[in-house]
Specification:
- By secondary structure, this protein is mostly helical.
- The chain has two domains: about 130 residues, no CATH class; about 140 residues, no CATH class.
- Helix 2 packs antiparallel against helix 8.
């Protein structure tokens, strides 16, 4: 295979992987938005609509962040196949792709009730999250950003799979009939989910980047990426969506307490995933590094070796006199 053919195959493979990532991100975002819309519109009570919106907001923002980055990577990759893009043009295209996706996602929530400011706030938050994700898609190297997106999707999958074993995990942490045991088991379940998600993200990042030739610092940054995206999503929830959370907290004192507990738990889980993912990816790539070979010293000459005897001096052309014992 010639070098040109090999380059073409590599480019086509990268484009296919970019499209696959974009499709996965879009499906995740669409699924969460559809689920949130169905849950909100299925409530007959206005107070339940508000609390359901507050519960659905963090997941929708996290999905919008990753989907925006994934779509931006795919669009930049497709345009880059036809013409080289400079740094400014690449960022402009990536942000535009994220913004377009954000507007489409915002319409899903805004059309629930065009006269309610709650859904306008949610729609604006989703648009902002997708736009920020699009900006991340313009950062180089794109392979690292793609690995972060795949790892972020895997974190979501791990969380879904653990819900099927929630009863078993709660039992392992001593969940009983008392509220105290239930709270302790919930904390243990949240910690378990965060640690497993971080380990899975770090391993996936290593497997995706092991042939990239990048330094170990890129592996660590990519391993921390999913947790960092969750932190950004939580920041957006507390800032752009603050009015929704505040309104949900006014429903009752219990609801206010629950919202505060969930907010703290989400931030703690995000930080655990960030550090565990970075450490796991670093350890994984560290196991493949070979120790540096010791430097070989040049052989010493007889003249420089103090242990070797000095040669006897004799005139040129004459043999050394032989000593005959008396």
């Amino acid at each position: 295979m010639s070098a040109q053919e090999e380059t073409t195959v590599t480019t086509e493979g990268a484009s296919f992987r970019g499209l696959a990532l974009a499709i996965a991100g879009l499906l995740w975002m669409a699924g969460l938005l559809w689920s949130a819309r169905a849950t909100i519109t299925g409530r007959s009570d206005v107070y339940m609509e508000v609390t359901s919106t507050a519960y659905a907001l963090p997941g929708a923002l996290s999905a919008s962040l990753i989907a925006g980055a994934a779509v931006a990577l795919a669009v930049v990759g497709l345009i880059g196949r036809r013409r080289p893009l400079g740094a400014t043009t690449r960022f402009a295209v990536a942000i535009g792709a994220g913004l377009l996706l954000g507007v489409l996602g915002a319409l899903v929530m805004l059309t629930i009730n065009t006269e309610g400011w709650v859904y306008a706030v949610v729609a604006g938050s989703i648009a902002a999250a997708a736009t920020i994700g699009g900006a991340l898609g313009g950062i180089r190297p794109p392979r690292v950003i793609a690995a972060v997106c795949w790892a972020g999707i895997l974190v979501f999958v791990v969380g879904v799979l653990l819900t099927f074993a929630q009863g078993v995990v709660f039992g392992m942490f001593g969940a009983g009939d008392s509220p105290a045991s239930q709270v302790g088991a919930a904390n243990g379940y949240s910690l378990t989910q965060a640690v497993l998600s971080g380990v899975a993200a770090g391993i996936l990042v290593y497997r995706l980047l092991r042939t990239s030739g990048l330094r170990w610092t890129w592996f660590a940054a990519a391993g921390a990426g999913p947790g960092l995206l969750l932190v950004v999503g939580e920041v957006l929830t507390r800032t752009a969506g603050a009015r929704v959370l505040d309104l949900a907290g006014r429903v009752s004192e219990l609801e206010k307490t629950v919202q505060q507990m969930l907010s703290g738990a989400r931030l703690n889980s995000a930080m655990i995933i960030l550090f565990v993912g970075a450490i796991t990816a670093t350890i994984a790539v560290g196991r493949t590094l070979k120790p540096a070979a010791p430097a070989l010293s040049p052989p010493s000459s007889p003249a420089s070796d103090p242990a070797s005897p000095a040669p006897s001096a004799s005139p040129a052309g004459e043999a050394s006199p032989e000593v005959v014992p008396e």
